[in-house]
Structure formats: structure tokens, C-alpha cells
Amino acid sequence: MPTITSVNVIDIRFPTSATLDGSDAMNPDGDYSAAYVVLETDDGDLAGYGLTFTIGRGNDLCVAAARQIGARLAGRDVDELAGDLGGLYREIMADSQMRWLGPEKGVVHLSAAGVLNAAWDLAARRAGKPLWRFVADMTPEELVAACDFRYLSDVLTPAEAVGMLARLAPTREERIAELAEHGYPAYTTSPGWLGYDDGKLRRLCREAVADGWTHVKLKVGANVEDDVRRLSIAREELGDRVLMIDANQVWDVPQAIEWVNRLAPYEPLWIEEPTSPDDVLGHAAIRKAIAPVGVATGEHCHNRVMFKQLLQAGAIDFCQIDSCRLASVNEIVPVLLMAAKFGVPVCPHAGGVGLCELVQHMAVVDYVCVSGSLEGRVLEYVDHLHEHFTDPVRIERGRYLLPGKPGYSARMHSESVDAYRYPDGHQWGG
Amino acid sequence: MPTITSVNVIDIRFPTSATLDGSDAMNPDGDYSAAYVVLETDDGDLAGYGLTFTIGRGNDLCVAAARQIGARLAGRDVDELAGDLGGLYREIMADSQMRWLGPEKGVVHLSAAGVLNAAWDLAARRAGKPLWRFVADMTPEELVAACDFRYLSDVLTPAEAVGMLARLAPTREERIAELAEHGYPAYTTSPGWLGYDDGKLRRLCREAVADGWTHVKLKVGANVEDDVRRLSIAREELGDRVLMIDANQVWDVPQAIEWVNRLAPYEPLWIEEPTSPDDVLGHAAIRKAIAPVGVATGEHCHNRVMFKQLLQAGAIDFCQIDSCRLASVNEIVPVLLMAAKFGVPVCPHAGGVGLCELVQHMAVVDYVCVSGSLEGRVLEYVDHLHEHFTDPVRIERGRYLLPGKPGYSARMHSESVDAYRYPDGHQWGG
Q: Which Pfam families does the entry mention (chains A, B) (predicted)?
């Protein structure tokens, strides 16, 4: 019966701003960072690894919050914890003093995600299973008991969720076998960062096609003439492959409509984050005005209540959950269920550091347990920073391969932790 | 030409949980706290004082964030800063790495409010004016230039805002004279904390009536039978005075409707925070189902984009802005303008520590500059912790008296700061 002996939270930052990797219209100079959570146990081989993702300054705030939230895990029995991850979630959310700082948003919620990601990782490792398999081996009742349905009952009740999961449970193994053979469909954002010049954009689009990518995403929103030129380059290189665009929240509603309609001739599948992530009604208005271009959002959608409304309002064509913005599996699965109920495909947000590693598991859970469909689904891929993980994502011909090792894939190499620890790692001059 | 020499942010906590003052259905044991911001200058008599409010644990996170956000103010010329408070706001919001942690919500936004509140206080003190007067002496153009209209243009443009302000500008002094004579209408929440027993509730309601209060608010939401009994006690004591109720977010939408309809016979004016503060569409559904009981919310409404939607969706009858949840005057005034446009009265949230001191200025600005109306307006009052402020609110016969001293009224006595500084103040055993 292993016990958690300590909760370590480490400030890890990568100086990505130097290369403009990850640059977009709202975030010109992010340093991809993680509040990295390690749950150590008295079983030398067993630990839990999780993270929340930020882009630099303020990562220390998430580290401090995760330390406070995580402190309650020290001394806990691993098997008890793993057997009641819903209880752990509810315990964390019930801290009313911390809740005041959100509620369920911002630094506290991001940090809760980091801690809970580590707890789910620990539970999956203890079971010797990849996270997706750990979830897929739960009964519908067990999975629903781990989920947060608070504030959702006008759209989805726990009983209804059990029914949805139960209908697909008998055929879970068929879909797992299919993913094991063919992988999960993906798209790449790597060619399209806003800081890249036209030559680099063209070269990277060409390489993406050669590598078998069928879907490519470009950043837009800084200058409309530049966007027209960049989209025409991308469209030339991509032919009839699928192109998506992403504005990272820079527009007001009327401006979004005007700008996207200028870019519509290049037939983007979706515009991502056209405006404030809080603006449910704004997204609905934009969607109406730019069809057939779709609307996608979610990487900054801060909790299940906001996703509920995006779905209720008919505001989105694609639901982009994020494994660090939402508070781990406990909050993501209810969003997957609501999206399935509304018939909206889930296309998780990835990139940053570790997000691809994490969300691949959630995409698999969506297909295997919740929606049973791959229609309209593509999982984001960005080719940064995977070398720092012990179980990095594997991509072949534009598809994610099914993860096979135990856990949630968020463990970093100790050499990387030592090098990029902020501010004392040697990559930071420490 | 004074210069800001240092930015001090202090963790202040009051052990209010010991007396159940402030207890409600969501927050049973808050320790009212403040990340207290002091902008010191090289003019010995001049400093700026601001705060953001929390309820205990996590106040240190706001302190840390406010230090990071405030650091940019050190070395600034006070007159330049005071002349471009919109520029300061935009500079703070443009920090994309910090923005990632929200955006515009949670710890980072609360902390930005604390820093900006101190900057507005400094500007008003430099001018020798109460904050409300400092704002009322700005031209419509100057005030609009200080405001954040990003993401609002589908509802309100800066040009339209100038027009709204200009229409009322010629009569500002008349309304100021009226407030100077009669004060601003208020209500009290002091009798109705959930932790108080029936006897104390009855006694405090009776005292409120004797003190001239015409509006009293009760906490509800823990147990419906208890609520029925407590409301019947309050109604007996209040006669035909106005009663409001506040559930502090504990219900799902269907539950809110059922519960409020049970309490409707006691004719509450409004139900406050019936569900998640993020649930715009939920509030709209509740409002439809419980009329003529009104819906009020806002103390946890995290930014202007959320208020925009509450108004667009017809989700609220009363708009409860908070001086620490929104990012200071720069973000509050646009909300006042939108509420005026939609004809929804603004009834600011107060209580906690220092909130009454701050929001009284915003209520005055609403009447004098923005809405020109007192109809349906009542400003919350709670009788806690005013003794710690150098310019506390003054109440007479259920009305706020017009503040007269320079600044935003958030300065604390140095003895209070020394005593309640966490964890080393002597009230904390330090």
C-alpha cells in the first residue's frame, strides 16, 4: 500500500520566445512553461507526474498555488486516492477560500489541473496502464462518479451521462483496436506561427504535405493584408488539403466577422478564437455571420460552465478542450459528454509544452468511451519540446499513435528539469 | 513633480471566520483579507492606496501577482501616470505572459484591480479630490480614453460612450448637490449571515428597522426549510420594507428555480447569485422562471465581457459591480455605461474589507456621470471592519454620505496593517 511522501512543484520554463516558435497575434513572445507537479511515494518505482501550462511570467504563481492545493495529498494512501479521484477533485474544489479567487478559473483552476493531472497519472501508473486505458477500464458509473456535473444539470445529468457511456461500453474494445491500427487523426500548427516569414511558411507547408499531413493551421489576426498573402501561399502549397486559421482572441465581434469574410475565399475549415474566450454570445454571432467557415474555441475556455453555454448557444462548430485549462479528467469528461450530446466534435488544443502528451489521452477517451465517432475530429500537433518527455507523442503520416506506456505521459526527463528549472537551471544561467 | 519610489504589497487578513460574520451557503468560514497596495512617492505626504479583496487562503497569491504587476510603477512620474490612467491599464493588460493566466480573470485580474485602484487613489489624492470627484471632473473624452472598450464594440463604442456622458455632463453638479444633501440609498446585509441563529436574525432585523434601513438582505441556500423560517422572521420584522436574498452560487439552474419559487411568498426583490457566476444563459433561464422576483449578480462576474453578455441575454435585473473583481475604474465605467444603455440599475457589491469604501465612489460616478438615475439603485452596506480605514464610509438612516476626503478611501491605519499583517502581525501571533 504505497503512500504519497511528498508533493514537489517545480517552475520549468523554456526560452521559446527567442525563436518565435509559438508566436501569434495575441502572444508575440511566449516562453513555454510548466508548473510541474511530482507526487513522490514510498514505493521507489512509483510517482505521479502532472503539469499545468503557462507562457512565462506568472508561472511562479501557478507553482505557488499548486503547492497549496497539492499539500493535502502528502501522506495519502495511493490506492485510496486512485479509487476515489472524484472525491479528491471535490475536496480541492470545496476549499471556499481558494474558490473565491476564481471561482473555477485563472491561476487557481490551472493549478488544480496540474495537481489533478498528477493524481490521475499516479493512479494510471499504479494500475500499470496508459491514462486512456485506465479511464476506458472504468465502468460508466465509476467514470461518472469521478466527474463534476455541478452547474450542468440543465443540460446533462449524471444519470443521463451513465446512459450515454453505457451505450458505447460494449464496443469500446473495437474502437481501441482501430486506434491501435490506424492512430488518431491530427493536424499540425507548426508551419503557421505568426513570426515566421513567407519563405519559411511556404517551406514548412511543403514539408507538412510531404510528411503526410492533411490538415494545417495558420495564425492570423495581426494584419489582414499579410493574412491574405500568407493564406494564399498556404493554399497553393496545400492544394485541397484542409486549412484552419487561428486569431488568438485579437478581434471584437464586428471586426472578426469582417476579417474572416476577407479570408473566406481561401476556404478555412474554422476560425479559432476569433474574440474573447468569455464571449459566448459573441462567438454565436460570429458563427452565424461567417458560415460556412466554422468557429472553434476552447483553449482559454476556463471551465465546464462556459463550454455548456458555448454548446447551448450554438456558438461553436469545434470544441477545443485543453488538459490544463480544465481541471483534469474530472472536468474534461463532462465536456466531452455535453459535446457528444450536442453533436459537436471535440478537437483538443495542444502545443505549448506537454499539451500534446496530455490531450492525446483525452481524444482517445472521447472516441472510445464518449462519442464513438472520429467524424470532424482532428487533434492538434505542434513539434516543440517533446524531447523533454520520457514518453513523448509519436506521430506517423499525420496521425497520433496510441500511447502505450503507463500514465498520462507528462513525465519529464530529470536532465530537462535540471536544465530548465527557473530561475536556477543552467539554461537560465543558474 | 513627485515620483513613485516604491510599490509595497502587504498581505492583510482578518480572522472573521471566528465569529461567522460573512458566512453564507458557499463560504462558511471566510477570513476577510486584502492584498493591500501602497504606492510611495518622494513627496512625503503623497502616496496611493488600493487593495484587492479575498477571503483568506490564496491572498498570498494575489500579493505575489500584485507585486509583479505593480513593479512597473516604480520610478514613474505621478503626474504623467495620473494624466494617462488608460495607458497604465492598457500596459498592464498587454502583458501577454500574465494574460495567459486569465485572460482577465482570477488571481491576475484581481491583483491588477488592486494595483490600478492604488493608481487611481494616487491620482485623486494628487488632485486633492475624492475619487468620485476626480472622475466627475474629467471630460467625457478624457473618461472614455481611460476606459477599456475592447470586446464591447458590438454593444457600445467609445464614440457612443462619449455621447452618453456628454448628455449628462451639464447637469453633473445638480446631482452632486443632491447627493451631498441626501446621501446615496443603501441596504444592509449585516442581519442576514447564514451562521446567525433565529434570535440574532430577529434582533438584527429589528435593529435595522430602528436604524432607518428600508432594504435588508439575507443569505439563503443551505436548507430550504430553514430559509422559509428565516424569511418569515425577517418579513415579520421588516413589514413592507424591501427584502433581498442571496444564495452565493450554490444552486444548479433547475434547483434555483424551484427553491426561489418556494421563497417567493415572502416577496424578495431579488435573488442574488442563484448559480455559477459564469452561467449567463442559466441566469437568463432563472430570471424568466421566477419573475417577478428579480435576478442580481456581479460580485464574481470577472470582467466587462461577462457583464456585456448578462445584459445582452436579459439575464439580470440588477448589475452588481465590484471594485476589486473588475480591473478598477477603467473597466467599471464601461460596465456602468452598458448597464445604463440596457436600463439595468447598478447596485454595487460591498462588504468584505474595504469594498464599501471603494464602491461608494463608483455608485456616485454612476449617478452623477453615467445613468443620472437613482431609480432601483441601492448600494450594499455591511458593518464590518470599517474601523481599520482612515476615511471610513459614513451611514445615516440607511444612506451613504458623500465621501469628502481625497482619494479612493482604501487607506488603512498603520496600526491595523501592523496588527493584521499575515502571518507576522501580532493578531496572528507574530
A: MR_MLE_C, MR_MLE_N
